[in-house]
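User: Reviewer 2 asked us to show a designed sequence for the structure in our supplementary figure. I'm pasting the structure tokens here. Could you produce the per-position amino acids so we can include them in the response letter?
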């Protein structure tokens, strides 16, 4: 019957809606939008600075993402031009966001993958380095993800000395990520600057390192039956 097909359509496009309250400053909203569908503002990209990235930094778990739709601004909806005008006119914006939760198809494909295990939580540990003893950290890092420092290699220096004195679970390896430097996180360029400064002034460095996820528990050992 016709009912089954319409039901499938609603399932395929399940969405959530939430409201974000923004204060627009000099950098503007900090998003790139498209209104080709004539009803919503589709968020194509989120810039580094602006009201939306500011909101994202302060509201973990309620971040606005590229691919979301702005469906209302201060009560104005279904009219992208009017919503944009509202964004330009007002400094305080209440924005209603809609996010598609992925289609039914994608979910069924996921469940067909063999040995799909729940994702293991990454393992975090703290590395304390006294830079007065070593003039060199000995880490080669990159920050493509824009949030953490990815350890490309470990060379001779303070980290190697640390590794010699600590168990494997607390050693820094290639492929680990430095998540925070002396409590400072989410800004890799600033983290690198801090490392350089503290190395030069020979102070203590505290690195929060994210290692690979803990391996999943293996199968239980086979029981040997005694005759």
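Assistant: Here is a per-position design you can include in the supplement:
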């Amino acid at each position: 019957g016709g009912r089954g097909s319409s039901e499938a359509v609603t399932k395929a496009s399940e969405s959530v809606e939430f409201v974000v309250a923004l204060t627009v400053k000099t950098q503007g909203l900090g998003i790139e939008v498209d209104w080709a569908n004539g009803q919503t503002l589709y968020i194509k990209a989120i810039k580094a600075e602006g009201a939306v990235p500011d909101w994202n930094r302060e509201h973990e778990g309620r971040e606005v993402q590229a691919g979301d739709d702005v469906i209302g601004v201060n009560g104005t909806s279904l009219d992208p031009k009017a919503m944009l005008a509202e964004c330009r006119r007002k400094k305080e914006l209440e924005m209603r966001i809609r996010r598609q939760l992925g289609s039914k198809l994608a979910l069924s494909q996921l469940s067909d993958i063999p040995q799909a295990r729940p994702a293991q939580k990454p393992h975090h540990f703290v590395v304390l380095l006294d830079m007065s003893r070593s003039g060199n950290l000995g880490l080669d890092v990159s920050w493509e993800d824009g949030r953490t420092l990815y350890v490309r290699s470990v060379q001779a220096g303070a980290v190697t000395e640390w590794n010699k004195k600590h168990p494997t679970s607390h050693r820094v390896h290639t492929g680990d990520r430095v998540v925070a430097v002396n409590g400072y996180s989410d800004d890799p360029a600033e983290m690198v600057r801090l490392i350089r400064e503290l190395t030069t002034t020979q102070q203590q460095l505290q690195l929060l390192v994210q290692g690979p996820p803990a391996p999943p528990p293996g199968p239980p050992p086979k029981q040997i039956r005694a005759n």
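For the response letter, you might also mention the following. Residues 124-210 form a domain with the Pdz3 Domain fold (CATH 2.30.42.10). Helices lie at 2-12, 51-58, 80-89, 104-111, 158-165, 188-200.
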